[in-house]
């Protein structure tokens, strides 16, 4: 199957040939997926009040306090960018994809991507409201969905959840331990005013992408074996 050392070593090999582009992708995606309210606040803080027209300033003030606007931004833009980021990292395993791969989610079946990502996040939120531990377990169970959407934006909701469940069955603890193995790196990064953590993200996402690719092939082999037995 896979082990932590294996996928992290593979991620390191990929970073040797393409690290700075990977870093740029995670940086762009991180900015575009950030809370909309925070982005508006940055604009307000950066530009002096006497430079902004009074009407424009008023609009920014309204938006910065608009939770509803931030929610819509996250659903219709942020989540799609996140799927595009996963798309880049999948293709980065095989070669040197263009930066604009992070916008791929807007070019395919956009509304399907939005719908499935929204359903996934609502399910995780509801599980977390019930109990934290089951919520975390479900988050790992659904963790392959953004990758599945990246490769097939036309996948149905049932197929996405079913495949992700198949791929993560018996793997959730391993995925959790993989995440834990990056805590030391993130801690060191946060010691550098938090900026250092940005440099860890390409490594983290690349390793998780390697897991996705391995588990996807494993599910395909299981399905082929089942078909052969049925025949």
Folded structure, characterized:
The protein has 231 residues and is mainly α. 77% of the residues lie in helices and 0% in strands. The chain contains eleven helices and no strands. The protein has helices spanning 4-32, 36-46, 54-64, 67-94, 110-130, 132-141, 145-151, 157-168, 172-180, 183-191, 201-230. Helix 2 packs antiparallel against helix 3 (54-64), helix 4 (67-94) crosses helix 11 (201-230) and helix 8 (157-168) packs across helix 11 (201-230). The longest helix is centred in the C-terminal third of the chain and has 30 residues, at 201-230.
Note the run of SSEs as H and E: HHHHHHHHHHH
Q: Indicate the structural class.
A: mainly alpha
SS element count, helices? 11
Rg is 20 Å
Please describe the topology of this protein.
Layout: H1 4-32, H2 36-46, H3 54-64, H4 67-94, H5 110-130, H6 132-141, H7 145-151, H8 157-168, H9 172-180, H10 183-191, H11 201-230
Helix pairs in contact: 1-4, 1-11, 2-3, 4-5, 4-7, 4-11, 5-6, 8-11
């Amino acid at each position: 199957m896979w082990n932590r050392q294996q996928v992290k070593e593979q991620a390191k090999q990929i970073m040797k040939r393409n690290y700075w582009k990977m870093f740029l992708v995670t940086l762009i995606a991180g900015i575009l997926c950030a809370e909309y309210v925070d982005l508006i606040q940055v604009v307000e803080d950066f530009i002096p009040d006497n430079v902004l027209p009074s009407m424009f300033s008023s609009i920014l003030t309204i938006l910065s306090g608009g939770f509803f606007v931030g929610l819509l931004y996250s659903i219709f833009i942020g989540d799609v960018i996140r799927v595009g980021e996963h798309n880049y990292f999948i293709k980065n395993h095989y070669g040197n994809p263009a930066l604009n791969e992070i916008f791929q989610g807007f070019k395919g079946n956009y509304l399907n991507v939005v719908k499935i990502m929204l359903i996934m996040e609502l399910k995780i939120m509801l599980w977390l409201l019930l109990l934290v531990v089951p919520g975390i377990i479900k988050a790992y169970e659904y963790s392959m969905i953004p990758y599945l959407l990246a490769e097939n934006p036309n996948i149905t909701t049932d197929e996405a959840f079913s495949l992700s469940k198949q791929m993560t069955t018996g793997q959730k603890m391993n995925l959790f331990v993989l995440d834990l193995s990056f805590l030391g790196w993130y801690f060191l990064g946060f010691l550098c005013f938090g900026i250092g953590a940005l440099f860890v993200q390409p490594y983290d996402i690349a390793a998780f992408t390697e897991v996705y690719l391995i588990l996807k092939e494993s599910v395909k082999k299981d399905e082929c074996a089942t078909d052969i037995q049925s025949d």
